[in-house]
Design brief:
alpha+beta; Beta-lactamase; two-stranded antiparallel ribbon; 8 helices
Length: about 280
């Protein structure tokens, strides 16, 4: 009996030590990130693993399109309905270019896919224009949904993300990513590496995902959205499995072209290091 008790105490002490080691790795030596704002959220525990300026209200650029897509899908509009691009859909704020020209007709489903995975501005604009009541009603619904989700520091002025008045916080965007995961079309479209649309018998357009990590075998990504305007810097939100745990990553105002991707990889290494340490200790 005494032997069993001693053995149980030893096993408990080993497990406690391993847990302490994991905690030290996770919360002791934090990753050095180039993004001005960052949050890592563990969906299983509901805890923030990393926080950096998470309550700072900043422009979010095309991260906006996640909310645009959710509101459109909430309306249960037919995804196979054809929508024709018009001159109204061009970017009058930033002058960004698009391969979708006036007169081209695509389905609502294709436009949603291009808006999410390729961050196509004309696609998002056309989706908003053809929403029942038009763009103003869609934007009002976007703000209403933000309130519904508890995103109290979030505001939208437009559906595309070109307005610098489209603002949020990292904390709010975690809530938006969590909500967006319940939409199958958003999950699928935002993580596919490429998409081809047929314009007519002679013309097809090929698009790639703006997040190169969706093409990496090292990542298991369930949702993704990038964004950029000069006022917002480069942004990235993702839901991914890290050490088999569903995790939300929010990176805002990354200063360099590749910083957000580098930060995401640094986060992955940091979160998964404890699992590697435990496996190695068991091998020894």
């Amino acid at each position: 009996m005494r032997f069993i008790l001693i053995t149980a105490l030893f096993v408990t002490s080993v497990l406690t030590a391993q847990a302490a080691d994991i905690e030290r790795v996770n919360y002791g030596k934090l990753p050095k990130l180039g993004s001005a704002i960052a949050m890592i959220y563990d969906e299983q525990t509901g805890e923030s693993l990393y926080s950096k300026n998470i309550n700072t209200v900043v422009p979010i650029a095309s991260i906006t399109k996640l909310m645009t897509a959710m509101v459109i899908l909430d309306a249960h509009l037919p995804l196979d309905e054809p929508i024709t691009i018009t001159r109204e859909d061009r970017d009058r704020l930033k002058g960004t270019k698009s391969r979708l020209k006036a007169g081209m007709t695509l389905t609502r489903g294709d436009l949603l896919t291009l808006a999410l995975m390729a961050s196509e501005n004309h696609a998002a604009s056309a989706l908003a224009r053809t929403y029942p009541g038009g763009t103003p009603v869609l934007v009002a619904m976007m703000n209403a949904k933000a309130r519904e989700l508890g995103m109290d520091d979030t505001h939208f002025e437009g559906p595309v993300g070109l307005h610098s008045e489209n603002v949020s916080t990292a904390k709010d965007l975690v809530q938006m990513v969590l909500a967006a995961q319940s939409y199958e079309h958003i999950q699928r479209a935002s993580t596919q590496s490429r998409h081809i649309v047929k314009i007519n018998a002679r013309q097809t357009l090929r698009y790639g995902n703006t997040n190169p990590l969706v093409r990496s075998r090292n990542w298991d990504i369930g949702l993704s959205k990038t964004g950029y305007i000069s006022e917002a810097g480069r942004c990235l939100v993702m839901q991914a499995k890290l050490s088999e745990r569903p995790t939300v990553i929010v990176l805002l105002d990354s200063w360099g072209k590749n910083t957000r991707v580098g930060d995401a990889n640094r986060i992955k290494s940091w979160v998964e290091r404890p699992a590697r340490s435990v496996r190695q200790s068991r091998i020894r």
